[in-house]
Amino acid sequence: MDPKDPAVPGLLRDGRLEVTGRIVSASNATLLCAIEVDGLRAECVYKPVRGERSLWDFPDGTLAAREYASYLIAEAFAVGDDGPLVPPTVLREGPFGPGMVQLWIDTDRDRELVDVLPPSEVPAGWLTVLRARDALGEPAVLVHADQPELQRMAVLDILINNADRKAGHVLAALGGGVYGVDHGICLHEEDKLRTVLWGWIGRRLPLELLRSVRKVRRRLDDGLCATLAEHLTRRELRALSNRVDGLLSCPRFPAPSGYGPAIPWPAF
Ligand SMILES: Nc1ncnc2c1ncn2[C@@H]1O[C@H](COP(=O)(O)OP(=O)(O)O)[C@@H](O)[C@H]1O
Ligand SMILES: [Mg+2]
Fold first, then answer.
1. How far is the centre of ligand 1, averaged over its atoms, from the C-alpha of 205 (Å)?
2. Domain boundaries, the chain
3. Least enclosed by CB within 10 Å: which of 24, 167, 220, 239?
4. Mutate which of 2, 12, 30, 111 to test ligand 1's pocket (most atoms within 8 Å of Cβ)?
């Protein structure tokens, strides 16, 4: 189903969930489901809170709420016809208890946006994030495309303090568009930006992205803060608000903070 179809949120909220599979490579219990109501049918992921793996730095049982909060912020960040960069996401009951349910995005495998390649094979215009050597000692580079949608995702990640923007969490949708998934470890009160999208360090934010950040500021003040308070702590909310203001007062792509790893591992 088209993520921008206005019927999607209702379907995700009210549809009957039937578990059809499990993503075995996932680190949490990430279930693939069919969802159906009133003749509408789609595929989605369902991550029950009960299936969340414990982490040392994030409080237990909070990942689904962080995914939902990230979706709400992506919605506030969206402008024009493009729609949010996060697929429609809801919190609801499911066969294994409360959790998050998110529309499945069919991906275009011929449209990679992040890759590890020998330096000679990097497509023209792509940005290099890391130079390394592969298992055989040959040079390899971590690179990503230089595209407005990816740049937009990098800015969203700054706002939501994404600690896990791996290559596999950047989806090029079939039929166009780019979506980010797996926002369980976002919105921590401490800086944890960990991403493969470091290609624009030091550059000024384009005007339309600045406009989007301003829109988030307005939406936070117009009720989004109150909604997010149901899902985040006061300190996490204050940190979010500070990140938004920080980017507005210094509208440049930041460099890694120097604390902790800046690139998620594995990067894919
Ligand atoms: N909404 C989605 N649409 C399409 N693919 C998805 C979606 N959510 C997750 N995936 C795929 O499933 C993989 C595992 O899901 P992820 O959200 O990363 O789970 P985990 O929290 O366990 O790491 C992702 O890397 C991605 O390839
Ligand atoms: Mg993941």
1. 28
2. 8-108+147-249, 114-144
3. 24
4. 30
Instruction: Give the ligand at the shortest distance from the Cα of 29.
Output: 1
**Ligand 1: nearest atom to the Cα of 25:** 14
In 3-state terms, the chain is what percent helix, strand and coil (to 5)?
30, 25, 45
Q: Using CA atoms, how far apart are residues 169 and 152, in angstroms rounded to an integer? A: 14
Which of 208, 210, 206, 197 has its CA nearest to residue 246?
A: 210
pTM metric for this prediction: 0.97
**Parallel, antiparallel or unpaired: strands 114-117 and 89-92:** unpaired
Per-residue pLDDT of the chain (268 residues; tens, 9 = 90+): 999 999 999 999 999 999 999 998 888 899 999 999 999 999 999 999 999 999 999 999 999 999 999 999 999 999 988 899 999 999 999 999 999 999 999 999 999 999 999 999 999 999 999 998 988 899 999 999 999 999 999 999 999 999 999 999 999 999 889 999 999 999 999 999 999 999 999 999 999 999 999 999 999 999 999 999 999 999 999 999 999 999 999 999 999 988 878 999 888 8
Query: How close is the Cα of 38 to the center of ligand 2, in Å?
Result: 31
